[in-house]
Amino acid sequence: MKVEQKKMQNALMESKDLSVFYGEYEAVKKASIPIYEKTVTAVIGPSGCGKSTFVRSLNRMNELIPGVEVKGEVLYHGDNIYDSKVDPVNLRRRIGMVFQKPNPFPKSISQNVSWGPKINGMTDALDDRVEEALKKAALWDEVKDKLDQNGLSLSGGQQQRLCIARAIAMEPEVILMDEPCSALDPISTGRVEDLLFELKKKYTIVIVTHNMQQAARISDHTAFMYQGDVIEFDETKKIFTRPSKKQTEDYVTGKFG
Known about the structure:
Blueprint lengths: L1 H8 L1 E12 L2 E12 L3 E5 L6 H6 L11 E9 L2 E2 L7 H7 E4 L10 H11 L6 H11 L3 H4 L12 H13 L5 E5 L7 H14 L4 E5 L3 H7 L2 E6 L2 E7 H6 L4 H7 L5
């Protein structure tokens, strides 16, 4: 218990009794999860359990869906991001998002990465910013000679790394990833996983994944969700080797899901 209390003091973000409603349907039920700085937190669970809804709540993306209501708090540096004083656009600059399906703009590779900084007035040394973001996304060596080519001309795995570079270019502190490898082949998935080990040296990452082996490989902490509830949260090694809840054990051993 003392160890957990110490960890909680170091949480960069923390959801506290967070509930999300689609109309009358409660998709996430009073979720309380700490997110530690410069780590990877995986959110696992069967389809429809509320994983993506929870992660989209961490930068207020759910507000873009009509009829959604959020209750509870998400603390970021100790402040509730749902406070009326918080600008959600500015918040999403600091807490970036990478989606399940690669979604590059129908623009050049360079324009994909520079678009966000440009519209937000971050125009100093823009070429350097593009290069740095592509390097951090482990894509620079593959595209440095074709920055003017359309981003849609890249392979699926390259497109997803381009989307990661696009998020990095905004200089976020947190990167949210909603099943970023589900549409990728095994080789591309491996490259994205290798990238995550590098990115967590500078960024705090939360990733939704349906792949339990992936969660075990890449994450430091894991939250298991079922039917909107957070059943268990702990260090990933403990979740996968000695979970404290029978439901968690049944899920990670493949008895349901």
